[in-house]
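The following record pairs a protein chain with its ligand, pyridoxal-5'-phosphate.
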Amino acid sequence: MKRKHVYSSLFFAASKMLCFLRIFTCYCKGFEAVKKLPTPCYLIDEQKLHKNMEKLAAIKNQSGAKMLLALKCFAAWGVFDLMKPYMDGTTSSSYFEARLGYETFGKETHAYSVAYSSNDIKKVAGFSDKIIFNSLSQLGQFYPECRNVTCGIRINPGVSYSQFDLADPARTFSRLGVTAIKDIEAAVPMVSGAMIHFNCENEDVAAFERMLDGISCKYGTFLEQFDWISLGGGISYTEDHFDSRRFAQIINSFSQKFGLQVYLEPGEAAVAHTTSLMTTVLDIVENNKRIAVVDASIEAHMLDLLIYREPATFKGTVSQGGFPYQIAGRSCLAADIFGEGNFKNELEIGDTIMIEDAAGYTMVKKNWFNGLQMPSVALMRTDGQIDVLQASSYTDYKESLSTLLRI
Ligand SMILES: Cc1ncc(COP(=O)(O)O)c(C=O)c1O
C-alpha cells in the first residue's frame, strides 16, 4: 500500500516536472522567436488573451448576460478565432466596424452610431441583428428602412462612473443618447430594447449596483416593456480584484426582475494586459536625465496614453533603484514621451523595450504621423510560435494619403 503511494507520488512529481519543462520549452522557444521579430511590433500573448476570455465567459455563464466585443477598443481580427468561443458577437460605432464584426467575428452583430447617414443605414440594415439609434430623430428618420431589423434606442441616464471628462457619457451637454422621458416614450413603439452605456474603467461593483438601481427606478416602466438591454462597456471585469461573482448576481437579478436579455459590451477588459508594444532603443541622449529614444512614438502608436495623460509601464523595471530613464518616441513632437522607468540594467542602443498594455484603444488608433514605420501586429501562440498578423510598408503609408484615382 505504502509502495503504491510512493509510486503515485513519484508519478505525480514526474508529470508536474514534464508540464513545467513543456512550459519552460515553450517560453524559451517564444523568447527566441520574439527576439527575431522586427520592431516596432504589437505583440499579443495568446495565453493572456485566453485568461481574459475565461474570466468573461465565467461572468457570462453566471449572469446569463451576452458578451459583445466592442470593436472601437480592439479590432485586430486576426485573433478573433481565439475570442469567438467565449463571446457572443460584436458591437460597433460605425458602418465599417459593424461590417468588420459581421465578416470576421460573426455570431451576433450590433450596430450603433452616434449619427448614421442614409447610406450607412442601407448597408448596416443588410447584415446587423440589432441597430441602436442615438437619438429619437435618427430613429424616426430611418425606422421605415429598418423594419426587418431589431431596433433599439440609446438612453442617457444622466449618471456615470468615469474619471475622465473626455470619456464621460453623462458630461454636461452630452449628445450621447436620449435624455427626455417623453422621447423614450415616443421611441417605445419602434424599439424592443435599449443601450445604456454609463461606465468607464469601473472596478467598483458597489458603485455599479447603486447606479443600476437608480436606472431601474427611473426607467422601470420602459424596462418592463423591453426584451433586451445593453449595459455598454467600461467595466474592469478582468482586473484581479474585480468582484465578478457579485457583479454576475446583480446582472442576473436585474435581468430576472424586468424579463430582459442583458448584453454587456466589454472592450478594454477583453484585452487588458495581453499585449506589449515591442520597441528598440535607437539612441540614448542626456538632458539632466537619461533619455532612451525608441523606434516608436506615443503620438502615433499609443495615442490614448497621450490623450488621457497616463504614463506607460515598461517590462523589466523596478519601483525603486535601478537605472532611471525617460523612454521617448522618435516623432518630432517635443513631448513624445512614453514615461519613466527604473531599469534593472543600464540601457544600450539596440536593447528591446516592451511597453505594456498596448491592445485596448491602441492598435485602432495608430496613425502615420511623421511617416514613422507602423508597428506590425504579431501573436505569440501558447506553444511559443509567432504568427505575424499584419505588417505595413511604405506603400501603405503612401496610399493612406493619396491614390491616383480620377473622380
Ligand atoms: C457604447 C459603448 N460600448 C462599449 C464601450 C467599450 O468600453 P470599454 O472598452 O471601456 O469596455 C464603449 C466605450 O466607450 C462605449 O461607448
